[in-house]
Amino acid sequence: MLDNLKPQPADKILALMQSFRDDPRADKIDLGVGVYKDAEGRTPVMRAVRTAGKRLWETEQTKSYVGLLGDPAYGDALRDLILGDSVDPGQVSAAATPGGTGALRQGFELIRLAAPDAKIWLSDPTWPNHPSIIRYLGIEMGEYRYFDNATCTVDFEGMKEDLNAVAAGDVVVLHGCCHNPTGANLTLAQWGEVADILTDRGAIPFIDIAYQGFGDGLDADAAGTRLIASRMPQTLIAASCSKNFGIYRERTGLLMAITHDAKLKTVAQGTLAFLNRQNFSFPPDHGARLVTTILTDPDLRADWQAELEEVRAGMLRLRTQLADELRQRSNSDRFDFIAHHRGMFSRIGATPEQVEQMRKTNGIYMVGDSRMNIAGLNARTVPILAQAILDAGA
Fold this sequence. Notes:
Layout: H1 12-22, E1 29-30, H2 47-59, H3 72-83, E2 92-98, H4 99-114, E3 120-124, H5 129-137, E4 141-145, E5 147-148, E6 153-154, H6 156-163, E7 171-175, H7 188-201, E8 204-209, H8 218-231, E9 234-240, E10 252-259, H9 262-279, H10 286-296, H11 298-330, H12 337-340, E11 345-347, H13 352-362, E12 364-365, E13 371-373, H14 381-391
Parallel strand pairs: 1-12, 3-4, 3-7, 7-8, 8-9
Antiparallel strand pairs: 2-10, 5-6, 9-10, 11-13
Helix pairs in contact: 2-10, 2-11, 3-10, 4-5, 7-8, 10-11, 11-14, 13-14
């Protein structure tokens, strides 16, 4: 049997990580891996997470399974963080999952089970794992225009034109905030226009929200998701706690299905439990309990929000510094978009050849499409990157 297996294509980002590790240069810069780092290059444990972990260690009485859907308190806490009061909680089914990727996988499985002929539409570009999972599941896939490579801004007219061709019953995947890989976000007014188009076409939105709090703040980053959820008859949401709680290795995610029909809600809840059972049975619980402890304790929540705001503000400072350095050195405003992008990533419009030149000459590692992780920078390395970008002819 095993001799029938064929080598699988290497994940480009994981391969880039390995190349960075193998590079002996002391002044190399890692802008590839999608993990938050502080100015010292560390991915720290947040203060509230450390306190919640100690509290959990002291009070936890069992390591027995939780339910198939996870601890209900976790689902309630994360639902409220993301949706606020935009929908009635009684309309929301929720299932804990192994990370945001697990939530996406379960959501795609739900789509295949409920509507096997539906096409799933992705932004061009999008996070590479989106199309990878969809292809693996054998689901038909389409793309809608999203990013203008010339201006490094949202191609909203192209997006609207493509979404107006979506068929009834199709699913449209939307990035809730901090678009990965581009960093270019929709305005709230544009979210409203997208909701109008999806309603008119009879399409189902599936929102991937993995960076809430990294862009313009917790509520601002959730505004588009809340607008869609409040206006659409049905919505799917995949959420991740990896970034905003810094608990990457705990694999803490949530899949939500929102419907305005109470009977459908009961069926959806049962289906989410069924899908979890078929895939991994009971979801991991440690990260979920950390999140629940933080979100339900006023002092811990306040400390978490304060540290998250420090992280967000730090990335904005790096964006502004890089845009200013590029403006000064190039005597041009063509890189000002970097200061307007949000989240960890920006796609800067460099060619694969220019990206490779920066790697060879300067030891700067970014993805071949020129997606770079802003959080991989610090005040010292920003001028180095700015000059390398210009020297490469980007």
